[in-house]
Amino acid sequence: MPCFRWLPEHVAGIAARPHPQARPFTRAEAPRIAADMDLWDHWPVLEANGDVAAIAGGALVIFLAAPILDDPEARHALARLWLFHRTPAGWRDLGPVFADGFSPGSREWSGTAIVDPAHSQVTLHFTAAGGRGEPAVTFRQRLFATRAALTIADGVPALSGWTAPVETLRPDGVDYMIDLEGTGAVGAIKAFRDPFVFEDPASGQTRLLFAGSRMGSDSDWNGVVGAGTLQDDGSWRLDPPLVSADGLNNELERPHAIMHQGLVYLFWSTQRKVFAAGGPCGPTGLYGLVAPGIDGPWTPVNGTGLVFGNPDCAPFQAYSWQVLPDLSVWSFADLVGLAELPRSTEAARAAFGGTAAPVLRLALDGDRASLAA
Predict the structure, then answer these.
(1) CB–CB of 282/275 below 8 Å?
(2) 312-347 b/e with 16+ CB inside 10 Å = b?
(3) Mind listing the pLDDT tens digit for each residue in 341-355?
(4) Which residue stretches of 154-250 are H helix?
(5) Could you write out the DSSP letters of every residue in 311-340?
(6) pLDDT tens across 186-199, in order?
(7) Rounded distance, CA 336 to CA 354, Å?
């Protein structure tokens, strides 16, 4: 199937009609999980079919974590993967996912994790950003996979014995940009990150989705949803992008897919600030497409691609949404309660949630989506 083009005409339709908005929430509704760390992008360990795995009476959840810094934006240069166990009694901190020096990068960014049917092993796909030991922060991004043993002692799960990380997909300079530095500014960095595993029930194939940047573009805004396929020998084949926002948007972040009522829904997060200058902009929100299968043909959800946005009164309150097969939607609390961007790092720090946001719930009906009450 040809790559779906997400076009300015789609996004222009957002302003022409009402669209779903998440309700505003307060800092009190998003209590901190960790007193001494900022937490943001997070994902539960999943079964192969995409359901959240029930482990030791709860769910294993991996967050991006960093020390609490004066400027919350500085957290991206120190991000590590951190493991928590979410149970009915609350959150249990299980510590860093990897030992110091294990990751091939200078920091770790988002990914996905799948447990085997016996619940004895977890395979983690993640983004290694930069290079281990680099003297200055770079924005090279590589996709890796590693596997650990899952054990439970006295009701507490643990992941141990991680295998050497194996690089899964590499940008080819044909469909995907190799130079990922951009300007180095937030919102201008190019992408080869955020791997997500999707088991395609139609073909039986395992697909890997990721956020990428289109090679050969004439635009500074050239985000794509990339894809790869697991081969019989265990290697990964790089495939052409599934979705292109070339000329429209720079970052289609944390792409992921679920099955619902026989259809495939492909979602991603993006921010208002990464839409192309001079063109139509959508709100910071969750966007998506629907199709009979993972290779399309795709139809924009709600006619525009916008599933829902942050509320107008708090346009930065949450980000990095993940829709699960039960149609619950996870995200993190970003700049909570602000109608405008903060003018100082002090104001940003005061507003930054640094924790899980309240869970939302979608209602899906074909190519229509709304937020359930």
Answers:
(1) yes
(2) eebbbbbbbbbbbeebebbbbbbbbbbeeebeeeee
(3) 999 999 999 999 999
(4) none
(5) -TTSTTSEEEEEE-TTSEEEEEEEETT-SS
(6) 667 899 999 999 99
(7) 10
